[in-house]
Amino acid sequence: MSNEVNPDGERLLDAPTVRPYVIARGRTEAQDRFDLISLAVTVRPTTGTEIGLDPEHQAIVRLCRRPLSVAEIAAHLDLPAGIVRVLLGDLFDRGFVAVQQPQPEMDVLDERMYKAVLDGLRAL
Amino acid sequence: MAFGRSDGPRMPTAIKLLIAGGFGVGKTTMVGAVSEIRPLRTEETLTDRSVGVDDLSGVEEKTTTTVAMDFGRISIGDDFMLYLFGTPGQERFWFVWDELARGALGAVVLADTRRLADCFPSVDYFERRGTPFVVAVNCFEGAPVFELDEVKMALNLGPDVPVMLCDARSRDSGKDVLIALVKHAYGRRPSAAVG
């Protein structure tokens, strides 16, 4: 893999495996913000002319016309989940998507939820 | 946090279930049998957080490993989305397991009686973590048939852990396993002990 560093210390970013980190501009700090099953839904469509939104951002906004999990977005766009978290963080911060976090563990106690899930599974 | 649960449009609540077990035991098959969507694959990139599990003695650089997980989805009305994740089969990816297990309602440990020991790590992991789980013995053709009690003994399971036979290819069978798991998790929820 041609991932060598040139004399100026810049990486030559032609390897496909590097590309996701270019999309995320090297940021990884947002990775812990969203769970794999955090659900995102578009609340404001993009016009395609916004500054700072990459094609991948636009693709997420288009995909999330119905709620989709981080894992699904990643699978549909063929991007690592960590990168999707970063992009989703951008879109959330700029008000394009709403994100619903999953139930924290302590809340997974709700009787109504168990009953609804059991009924739903039985009805499959 | 800014991205709480109440702002924005009404959205379903996502619930996570795990399908664990040894390599080739039928995890993805089971996910596919019960999922309403074709199983999807997502990749988590692990950096140095996996160090300490791999033998990296003398290696100073960060390593990056990509772990792929297959998953499926079942919508329960408009209110809930069940996500079923097949756990990566290799023990050195416990980091992903931790991330996956966080907030999970419960886990199915798939077992193959020809290689029962393959599911020991999963059983150990969920016992240690306190994640409710059931053991489903996938009935491969030609596999030795054991009584469920024998499987239970061989795995040294607690008396309350449900053990059942299943056919990972069958939607109905997978559904029964998930129902057993949700019932078990319901009985195990902390508030159940209080009343």
Automatic annotation (TrEMBL), chain A:
Annotated PANTHER family: DUF742 DOMAIN-CONTAINING PROTEIN
Superkingdom of source: Bacteria
Database matches in InterPro entries: DUF742, WH_DNA-bd_sf
Record Pfam families: DUF742 (PF05331)
Signal peptide start and end residues: none
Protein name: DUF742 domain-containing protein
UniProtKB/TrEMBL annotation, chain B:
Any coiled-coil regions, as ranges: none
Keyword field contains NADP: no
One GO MF term attached to the UniProt entry: ATP binding
Alphabetically ordered keywords of this record: ATP-binding, GTP-binding, Hydrolase, Nucleotide-binding
Signal peptide as annotated in the record: none
Family (UniProt): Belongs to the GPN-loop GTPase family.
Protein name per Swiss-Prot or TrEMBL: ATP-binding protein
Organism: Microbispora corallina
